[in-house]
Amino acid sequence: MDSMRIYGFLFICFFLLAILHLGNAQDMIAPSPAVSDSKTIDQGIAYVLLLVALAITYIFH
């Protein structure tokens, strides 16, 4: 059971690392949008909070 927790924790860590790495993968040639969509930002925050809640639930279960 402990090995499953370790593998789950490592999977979550690598998953979050990949998500954070994708944030830096912006093309230098393409200009950024002038106005950001607040709905998209709110949805992104909601997804991150959902993943954190899922990870915490998995770890403590």
Number of helices: 2
Q: What proportion of the residues form beta strands (DSSP E)?
A: under 5%
- The arrangement of helices and strands along the chain is HH
The shape is elongated
Taking the sheet with the most strands, its summary is: none
Mean pLDDT: 77
Distance between the termini: 11 Å
Q: What is the tally of beta strands?
A: 0
Q: Stretches where pLDDT falls below 50 for ≥5 residues?
A: none
Transmembrane segments: 41-60
Protein name: Arabinogalactan peptide 22
Signal peptide: 1-25
Keywords: Membrane, Signal, Transmembrane, Transmembrane helix
Keywords:
61 residues, mainly alpha, elongated, membrane
Write the topology of this structure:
Blueprint: H1 2-22, H2 38-60
Pfam families: AGP
Protein name: Arabinogalactan peptide 22
Organism: Aristolochia fimbriata (White veined hardy Dutchman's pipe vine)
Describe the protein's architecture and organization.
- It contains 2 helices and no strands.
- 72% of the residues lie in helices and 0% in strands.
- The chain has helices at residues 2-22, 38-60.
- The model has no long low-confidence stretch (mean pLDDT 77).
- InterPro entries: AGP16/20/22/41.
- Residues 1-25 form the signal peptide.
Could you write a compact summary of the structure shown?
The protein has helices at 2-22, 38-60. By secondary structure, it is mostly helical.
